[in-house]
Amino acid sequence: SVDTLISNSSGGNIGPMPVKALPEKCVWSKKVKDIVFCASPLIMPGALYPDDWYVGKVSFGDAVVKINIASRAIISFLLPETIDATKLFLSDDETNLFFINKGDESLWKLRIP
Predict the structure, then answer these.
(1) H-state helical runs in 4-113
(2) From which domain of life does this come (predicted)?
(3) How far is CA 81 from CA 9, 70, 101, 113, in A?
(4) CB 59 within 8 A of CB 22
(5) d(CA 65, CA 60)
(6) Domain coverage including residue 78
(7) Domain count of the chain?
(8) Which of 56-60, 69-73, 96-100 has the highest average model confidence (pLDDT)?
(9) Which has the minimum average pLDDT: 8-17, 40-49, 57-66, 91-100?
């Protein structure tokens, strides 16, 4: 199981992430302080996390989620195929989310409405 904690900029613990996600699969908005985008596995196979994911023993099929940490509101975006998203980053205007599919190192873009 993956339990990721959220900390504030001072290092204080805010609480658990409301979805299962490794820190490497998340990116914070630079425009809205309480917004984080994460690639969250639809199914988490039994494994030793995060080690088994790092070495490629397991992979995920992710959905992208937009989380408002303050309100705990979550918006999900399903991806068009099975993608194990990593290295997420946002365009400067935050209308596009880019990520790498860990399985084949291809670059993807998701338009954020």
Answers:
(1) 51-54
(2) Bacteria
(3) 35, 31, 11, 19
(4) no
(5) 14
(6) 5-111
(7) 1
(8) 96-100
(9) 8-17
Confidence check: pLDDT of 112 > 90: yes
The structure's pTM equals: 0.86
Vertex 32 angle, CA 27 and 36, to 5°? 25
CA distance 107 to 89: 11
Letter string b/e over residues 80-97, b meaning 16 or more CB atoms within 10 A of that residue's CB: eeebbbbebebeeeeeeb
β-sheet with 35-41: strand ranges across = 26-28, 35-41, 62-68, 74-78
Q: For residues 19 and 11, what is the distance between their CA atoms, to the nearest angstrom?
A: 20
* pLDDT on residue 20: 85
How do residues 29-47 score in pLDDT, each as one tens digit? Answer: 999 988 999 999 998 888 9
